[in-house]
Specification:
Length: 419
């Protein structure tokens, strides 16, 4: 396995202004009044292969004038507009790492925020966050210039390279589908986030996990946490579970997930779940096999099943997987998420009638009845087993006037006696 020295070995290198090291010549409206305002003189601006600027002005002299309050369009292009366009071009051409980060709640946001431009960029999907980072608006805000100055330069550079304004996934990238990722759609999703196929391949090789394909979220976890690929290459394992369960202390600080046993942590990570969700479910006593069993029973992907369990955990309930599957079989949608305030209301109302019922019992009862008033009515009648209540509701049986019940918590051993 070849050693991975740096990301420069992986990425295709910076895209120059024009192919073959040629200069890019742009027409420009040069003004001394301010950006996009006042009288102007039209002339050419030359962008060299290293992104330096050639112009008819003496820029060093103009810098002295700018220090005393002067303004020149060409100076602004040299110092701020071209750096903004350069950054935007590299992001659109996937010549750098995606500058996004994973938030604690599982959403994504730009790694750097710049004023009004990024004011509404919290709670985004990874593709939305990456699209914002690639935008001309983000680059312009970063360097304090106007979008109308940046975008024409970006379009001119991409046109010279015969590239679309939003380049597509290279056609030859499909050769790593099935080896580094499961499907071609996974590659397309990573491309939308800003991860080129070469980087996917390099991370996969650096981890030393053979031909085992990985979920897209795994690559994003590595990249969003600034993983040291050279370190990964030096410490690669041949056993996939060992790699997946590696705490990587030199890459990011120790987290609660690192306290989970290596084998269990590996099984969690391969499901592609957010770290915070893994930590919550594991702390509540669930295991990866529980999520897989729920997915098989409901037909939902692991992420959906884990989110459903996470909703129960957030509400303070700990139903067994069998109980959640039984809920689904009784007609409760697999998308159901219990409401903690509603469960608390029902618990308070039934504290005297069902003293042995747990918060999970009441939560399950609320799920099958569909409302707090109905759950309270069934509970006051002495019913605590959601399975019995679900069957009675299915048979259109009315709520009995009175009934006593003996239960044993979540075990749900029901013995009913008509009064």
């Amino acid at each position: 396995m070849a050693a991975l020295r740096s990301l420069d070995d992986v990425l295709a290198g910076e895209l120059p202004p024009a192919p073959g090291g040629a200069d890019l010549v742009l027409p420009i409206r040069c003004s001394t009044s301010g950006p996009l305002t006042g009288p102007f003189v039209a002339h050419e601006l030359v962008i060299h292969a290293d992104w330096s600027v050639g112009t008819v002005h003496d820029l060093e002299a103009e810098r002295v004038a700018a220090a005393f309050g002067g303004y020149l369009t060409c100076l602004e292009y040299a110092d701020r507009v071209l750096p903004a366009a350069r950054r935007c071009v590299q992001a659109r051409a996937r010549r750098g790492l995606p500058a996004i980060r994973l938030e604690p709640l599982g959403t994504w946001t730009p790694r750097d925020h710049f004023g009004v431009c990024c004011a509404s960029t919290f709670g985004l999907t990874r593709a939305e966050a990456a699209a914002h980072v690639r935008s001309g608006e983000h680059a312009a805000a970063r360097y304090g210039v106007h979008l109308l100055q940046v975008e024409p330069v970006v379009r001119a550079v991409l046109n010279r390279h015969a590239m679309e304004f939003e380049p597509r996934l290279p056609a030859d990238a499909e050769d790593i589908a099935g080896r580094c990722v499961n499907y071609g759609e996974d590659l397309a999703g990573l491309w939308d986030v800003g991860v080129p196929p070469a980087l996917v391949r390099a991370i996969h090789v650096a981890l030393g996990i053979g031909c085992r394909p990985m979920r897209p979220d795994f690559y994003l976890q590595v990249l969003s946490r600034d993983a040291d690929l050279r370190w990964l290459n030096d410490h690669a394992f041949t056993v996939p579970d060992s790699v997946l369960g590696l705490p990587w202390p030199r890459i990011w600080p120790k987290r609660p997930i690192d306290e989970i046993a290596v084998g269990v942590r590996a099984s969690w990570l391969v499901l592609g779940l957010p770290t915070h969700l893994i930590e919550d479910l594991d702390r509540a006593g669930y295991r990866p096999s529980d999520v897989q069993a729920l997915s098989r029973a409901t037909g939902r992907p692991p992420m959906g099943s884990a989110s459903a369990l996470g909703g129960w955990v957030a509400a303070g309930c700990r139903p067994s997987i069998g109980q959640v599957i039984a809920l689904h079989a009784s007609g409760v949608t697999p998308f159901y998420r219990p409401s903690k305030p509603s469960i608390r209301r029902a618990c308070d109302a039934l504290a005297g009638s069902l003293p042995q019922a747990s918060i999970t019992d009441i939560g399950l009862l609320l799920a099958v009845t569909g409302s707090v008033p109905l759950a309270i009515r069934w509970g006051l009648a002495g019913f605590a087993d959601f399975g019995v209540v679900a069957r009675l509701i299915t048979d259109d049986r009315p709520v009995p006037a009175s009934k006593t019940v003996a239960i044993q918590g979540n075990a749900g051993q029901l013995s009913a006696h008509a009064s």
